[in-house]
Write a structure and sequence with these properties.
Oligomer: heterodimer
CATH superfamily of chain A: MetI-like
Strand content of chain A: under 5%
Radius of gyration of chain B: 19 Å
Shape of chain B: globular
Number of helices of chain A: 11
Number of domains of chain A: 1
Number of strands of chain B: 10
Distance between the termini of chain B: 26 Å
Strand order of the largest sheet of chain B: 6-7-8-3-9-10
CATH architecture of the domain at 2-86 and 207-271 in chain B: 3-Layer(aba) Sandwich
Order of helices and strands of chain A: HHHHHHHHHHH
Shape of chain A: globular
CATH architecture of chain A: Orthogonal Bundle
Strand content of chain B: 25-35%
CATH class of chain A: Mainly Alpha
Largest interface: A-B, 19 and 20 residues
Helix content of chain B: 25-40%
């Protein structure tokens, strides 16, 4: 299947959802304040754009996501690599990480607000806490699953520890780090909206909460759709960057059945 | 012409010994129990020689190779390469593994040049090009390992092993995972390569035919503990002719070592 065909296949479900939505609002009995119809949402979107509010909120939230996500990527990849390279460190840190990971991200919010206030810092910290674990765990698993045979080749050619890391462990782990980053990105959006719902005066999560209290469900839906669209764009961006970084993975996939993109 | 070089090796004196193993013992600890892996190994390999080591899987032959290479430590005995005790891997000793171990994320040319990072770029490229040519992979320099067949991957691994121009190349069942036809083709090629480069080669194999065909000398090893039962010096002409009577005789001799206790005695007739 060619690339255009694949994009169309991916659009079948959203189109179906829109049709269902249309049918529900046209023939259903739900009040418009609960489930607005397509036109209302379109109008709300146009209004919010025209007022400049949507762009402003989005930019603020996006800024928080990028800051928190980048910080968690740096920390997660760094710690995951260290733990993957050193059995001792892994044994020392992993149980604590596993325990902390079980605490839901929203459970951190009260404490973080107490510590860092309701300003910019607390949002970034919450995103970081949420996104760091999928990145760390996937990096760790990618690094520590490196085959002994490859490491032996590194020993044969007398690579030092740093060279062994950059030339053997890291490239081996890259595909899995990508998985971690994608998961982390999804969680970042979750975290930013959650933190803004609870304590904020700006951002897209705050806007949603405000719209809800005014019974403006059309605005809520606009925000949700926009988050989804930005999310998929950032996900694609990571994929594109990583396809550039890992050309051999594409070949391994197409070497088999040649069906995956 | 291969026969002439092969004959001339035998008149070299013992100081041409490039690998020297004396009273080597090696134990592994498995479940807190010491297991004898190698017992009193004595082996001298002359410069330019092709020695094959044949034995059951698990007889310690791969361990012996890795000790010579410096990838596995030894505590008891003498192991020397080029007259110096082995303390670790070195650039003058290449190694080829059964699972080619090309790094999937590097192009073939970068895999072949993997051990040459200290060379200036131009020189490295030249070495890589020459060795890709040597194994007939010059058109695949920019391919990734996943695009190569098993035989081609093993050729690339040989090129990597030779790229630093080592004096010794150790081969750990390099053709074990290949189909029979590819294997025979690569056996021929490795002989040609050895002739061209004059590299001393030690190959571990469980294929008796391969051991006879390639080896100037065949080291027959028993399992648990890994001991050298005999070292057979082969006739340089006859051993390269798989259908000769001498070849069959070597085969029977080796076969009998492995199955001396069973009634599976090798029938000489069927190979001839």
């Amino acid at each position: 299947m060619n690339k255009v065909g694949k994009v169309w296949t991916g659009l079948i479900l959203p189109v179906a959802i829109i049709i269902l939505w249309y049918l529900a609002t046209t023939f259903g009995t739900m009040p418009a304040s609960i489930l607005p119809d397509l036109r209302m949402v379109g109008r709300a979107f146009a209004e919010m754009i025209a007022a400049g509010q949507l762009q402003k909120d989005l930019l603020i939230s996006l800024g928080r996501v990028i800051k928190g996500f980048l910080a968690s990527a740096v920390v997660g990849i760094f710690l995951g690599s260290l733990m993957g390279m050193s059995q001792k460190l892994k044994e020392m840190i992993l149980p604590t990480v596993t325990a902390i990971r079980q605490i839901p991200m929203v459970a951190w919010i009260p404490l973080i607000i107490l510590w860092a206030g309701i300003g910019e810092k607390s949002k970034v910290i919450i995103i970081m806490i949420a996104a760091v674990f999928p990145i760390l765990v996937n990096t760790l698993s990618g690094i520590s699953s490196t085959q002994e045979g490859y490491v032996e080749v590194a020993r044969l050619y007398k690579l030092n520890r740093w060279e062994t890391f950059t030339k053997v462990y890291l490239p081996h782990a890259l595909p899995q780090i990508l998985v971690g980053l994608k998961l982390g990105l999804g969680v970042s959006w979750m975290a930013v909206v959650a933190s803004e719902l609870i304590a904020a005066s700006t951002g897209i999560g705050y806007r949603m909460n405000e719209a809800r209290s005014l019974m403006k469900s059309d605005k809520v839906i606009v925000c949700m759709i926009v988050i989804g669209l930005i999310g998929i764009m950032m996900d694609k961006l990571i994929s594109i960057v990583f396809d550039r970084l890992t050309p051999w993975i594409q070949l391994q996939k197409t070497g088999g059945s040649g069906s995956q993109s | 012409m291969g026969n002439i070089t092969k004959l001339s090796k035998k008149v070299q004196s013992s100081k041409d010994c490039i690998i020297h193993v004396e009273h080597l013992n090696k134990q592994f600890i498995v479940d807190k129990q010491p297991i004898d892996v190698l017992k009193d190994i004595n082996l001298q390999v002359k410069k330019g020689e092709f020695v094959t080591i044949v034995g059951h899987s698990g007889c310690g032959k791969s361990t012996l190779l890795k000790i010579i290479c410096g990838l596995v430590d030894y505590e008891d005995g003498i192991v020397e390469r080029n007259g110096h005790a082995v303390v670790g891997p070195g650039p003058k000793c290449g190694m080829v593994f059964q699972d080619h171990r090309l790094l999937p994320w590097l192009k073939i040319k970068d895999n072949v040049g993997f051990g040459l990072r200290d060379l200036p770029e131009e020189e490295r490229e030249e070495q890589v090009r020459r060795h890709l040519e040597l194994v007939g992979l010059e058109d695949f320099a920019n391919s990734y390992p996943s695009q190569l067949s098993g035989g081609m991957s093993q050729r690339a691994a040989i090129a990597r092993g030779l790229a630093g121009n080592p004096t010794i190349l150790l081969l750990d069942e390099p053709f074990g995972a290949l189909d029979a036809l590819t294997r025979i083709k690569l056996q021929k090629e490795i002989l040609q390569i050895q002739e061209k480069k004059g590299t001393t080669m030690v190959m571990v194999t469980h294929d008796i035919d391969e051991a006879i065909y390639l080896g100037d000398r065949i080291v027959v090893m028993s399992a648990r503990p890994g001991e050298i039962k005999e070292i057979i010096e082969t006739d340089p002409v006859e051993s390269r002719n798989r259908s000769s009577v001498t070849f069959a005789r070597y085969k029977k001799k080796i076969y009998d070592y492995f199955f001396e206790d069973s009634n599976e005695k090798y029938e000489m007739g069927y190979a001839i």
